[in-house]
Amino acid sequence: MEYLLVHEVALGNTPCYASVTKRQHWPELPPCQEQSLVSQLQTTLDLQQQLNIISMAAGKVLPLSGLRLKTAVGDFTASGSRMAECEHRSVLVLNQQCLAELIYHSDYPFSPMSLRELGLLEAEWLYALRNALVVHRLQQMALKDTLTGLGNRRFFDDSFDKAVLLAQRHDERCALILLDLDNFKQVNDLSGHSAGDDILLAVADCLRDTLRATDSLFRFGGDEFAVILSGTDTDSAELVARRLVRAINQHHLCQQHQVSASAGLALLKPQQDAKALFSAADSALYAAKDAGKSTVRVA
Length: 299
Fold this sequence. Notes:
Helix content: 40-55%
Protein name: diguanylate cyclase
Cofactor: Mg(2+)
Structural class: alpha+beta
Number of strands: 11
Strand content: 25-35%
Largest sheet: 6 strands, antiparallel
CATH architecture of the largest domain: 2-Layer Sandwich
CATH class of the largest domain: Alpha Beta
CATH topology of the largest domain: Alpha-Beta Plaits
GO molecular function, one term: diguanylate cyclase activity
Distance between the termini: 62 Å
């Protein structure tokens, strides 16, 4: 078994240096320490929880101000982290596969001895980290639409319930936009499902490009999409809905196949639950369809 670690240290104005260490076998930790850390890591497959465990263990090596983990499935930050003057980066590799980059922050320099001890901790984490990454990736796949990469209906249901509860708890605004493509069925009937998929991908891109990073976008399946807006009033939410419809209507593929979009908008009212808010947005969508399509209606 070979492990590869890449270290990079930046201390104030001191030039950064990098070293690559390749070992056939890692020195063994004392049995009590190894069992303690491994047993803790084996209690969870949650990446955030594992990172917090590693952060606590690394904090016994030297005082850390922060610890970050960068992976292909997302970035994670240990609880209570902050930036500091000294930084150390370590690339975690298992069986020639790069798993993640671990970034330490400390107010104190990283000595060769502390780097060695951190490397030992990282080696103990590799298998648990790999397993957690696999689980996280599977969870992401289960919550995403396979064609567009947007959140699917299952992800929407969970996110929508949470958004409504948070808005009610903190007395904040929350809005829901439901969109439906007009004349989409004729594309599949006349031009085939491949052309229909191209339009769905184009629509997903239009919606992504138009929305803010804080807005949540989902595809229900078929030609239906949903957007959750937080912290917005009626006028702003309606403006967003009209921008979304216009972006779809003006896309060249949609124009080529005579596909447009209709949208229904509803804002959360006092004492209203998620089911009632969804019903209001759905009714507004049907009103937009009845009004001649390619338009927006507000509940």
